[in-house]
Write a structure and sequence with these properties.
With 693 residues, this protein is α+β, with helices and mostly antiparallel strands. The chain folds into three domains: 210 residues, no CATH class; 138 residues, GAF domain (Beta-Lactamase), CATH 3.30.450; 169 residues, Hypothetical protein af1432 (Orthogonal Bundle). The strands form three sheets. Strands 2-1-5-4-3 form a five-stranded antiparallel beta sheet, with helices on both faces. Strands 7-6-10-9-8 form a five-stranded antiparallel beta sheet. The protein has a five-stranded antiparallel beta sheet with strand order 13-12-11-15-14, sandwiched between helices. α1 packs across α8 and α14 runs antiparallel to α15.
Amino acid sequence: MRIGRSLFQSKVGRRIFILFVMCALIPILCLSVISYIQVSVQLKKQNARDLQDAAKVHGMGIYERLLHLERDMQLSLLKSDHSDAFTKKFLPHFNAMGVIDSAGQTERLFGQFPAFSDAFLKKAASVSQNNTALIFENNDNEKAAPAKAYMIMKADKTDTLVGEIDTLYLWGIGHQNILPPMTDLCITDQYRKVLVSSFPLTEELRRHLARDAENDQVRLLEYNDQGENYFVSYWSMFLKSNFDAPVLNVLLRNRQKEALSALAQFKIIFPLVILLTVWIVLLLSIVHIRKSLVPLEEIKKGTQRVARQDFNTPVEVTSDDEFEEVAQSFNIMAEQLKRQFEDLNTRSKIDREILSSLNTAQIINTALKRMFLFFECHSVTLCLAAEKKPETFHGFILTDLKRRKPDEIFFELSKTDLEKLARIEEHYIASDQGLVRRIAAKTGVSIDQYLVVLPMMIDEKLKGIITLGYEQEKSFLNNELKHARQITNQITVALSNSFLVEEMERLNVGTLEALARTVDAKSAWTAGHSERVTTLAMKIADAMNMEQQEMDNLRRAAYLHDIGKIGIPLSILDKPGRLTDEEYDIIKDHPSIGAKILEPIHAYAEAIPIVHQHHEKFDGTGYPGRLAGEDICIGARILAVADVYDAVVSDRPYRNGWLKEKSIKMITDNSGTHFDPKVVDLFLAVISDLGLT
């Protein structure tokens, strides 16, 4: 109360408080009411969506189980054995199964059947050869056990296979129940006759369903039953596409009271939270408006100026309290920020260039040049320890920015020197001339006074060193050496990432080679074919100045271009004589088979068209798609030349390999028909460079 009276003695305080009430408290209260309404609406909508989704999911589950049951029945047609062991293992979801002959007599395979009605037998006899029918026999009492369900399909031209389905499995009841908690299930046929239900289908609900019959497939409605409000969602299953069966309606119901129970709690808690928040806000506002308004406003203006990078206008506060001290500290900080901002702006360029690359050589060159410029040293050396022999180092030295590449050296350090370097946490300056001189001598750096050594550590292991060489002693600011350490750490991380990427690339190439050899090993006549084709294709692509990503896709496709031959019988691949038309048609399937095999590998998505099209011809007479010209991807056009050339120079079971001169002439003669002329020209240049002409 004392604080409140002190506040209202000031006109400014009163105006600010009134403004606060108008601009803060009133909007808060309004927003609170709106929030409550929105929460209520959204909670109800969310429950409706969840119920709709649950109905659809349950219906799709029933549909999926019908497909599985159909598959099991088809399996049963193929098996003559219907022992208990077989039915338990392969037909677990059928209570009984039998065959109805043309005379309407039922031969039991397993389980027990009731006597079928004439209508049932007529329906079973009408099932077409390639169709599957469903028949549901409803109970007269809807509260009784679920309606029996039968699946029917033709066993042959005269007999019909009929199976009684386990309805608990079909409807997803029991241990397979995936319904949300406190949710009731009802399934009806297209005439709203109940097949299974956990709640009575009242007349009011039937009227709602009949009135809503022409709406979308997934529907939602609300109704009242004996004073209780319910949400009901139902989903119509249209089975005609796969089954000769009526439409099934999956109904899910839950009580609004249970579904919206969170809203009841929210009604109690939310007003209390609002009141408590308003009270706290009022109290804190009164205190801080009185004490902090003016100096805080000045400091705020100062921070805004700093945010605009205006460091030249100081904050002036004469309140003779902590705010004045804060203002003075702020001015000192702004001055330091001014100096550091200029430094960091320059240093961030170094960081971005280093961390944005995954190429080891590029990282090394960028690091050397930027550190040489920024630290104004006479030499920068970056030395990397060998992975298997850590005492051996590969060094890169930069002493002049005009040099296109840094000098390279190789040297070794003693075990004692390695242990000293590993113990350095930040940096090491030439206080101990012994180690510094030895490193300088090893790296070829000539120094008189000063050498800064920065170890590169990963997982407490020495991976390399960076040295900054100076001809004379230099005074460093603390932040300079700290940033040198930061840059060194970033260079270390960037190099570690680049090594990992390079190792992954080597692993990827090795995997491709292994897969290619696996494919080629299917036939003794194709050993090494994929690797040779890959080598030639990559040389053609390099002569074309193809982008690196495109070359990577081509490499993957070249290694795996014949992977589809896995699906081709060896008797055809190694046939010593001429292939028949039927055998040649099988051979022509291997590009499509290969594309299908690679389809699940997302990383090879851009390589798949190359594999699929590598037997297309430039004039459009190839296979499998009869593509022509530039409709064939460039990778496939390159691969076609490399593939055919290696195939004709290699021995085959039906002929000996051609001489290279004859093979090259064949490629040239088919330029513009089988092959892209531009690719052929590059092929001839590559062959000439390799000395194969």
